[in-house]
Amino acid sequence: MPKMKTNRAAAKRFKRTAKGGFKSGNSFTSHRFHGKTKKQRRQLRGLSMMDKSNVKRFKKMLPAK
Fold this sequence. Notes:
InterPro entries: Ribosomal_bL35, Ribosomal_bL35-like, Ribosomal_bL35_CS, Ribosomal_bL35_sf. It contains three helices and three strands. The protein is of the alpha+beta class. The longest helix has 10 residues, at 52-61.
């Protein structure tokens, strides 16, 4: 059976953590900041962990190396 192909779109957007979770950048960070508070903008800066309900699907897209 051939190897599973990595979904390249997902590989560019998500990184796998050591424990098997996924981290990604936040949405709502590209424009229209005048409607957001300073606290919202500050908390959107870093990376965030993917919700566990989506992890199973993304493990198929990004097979382990």
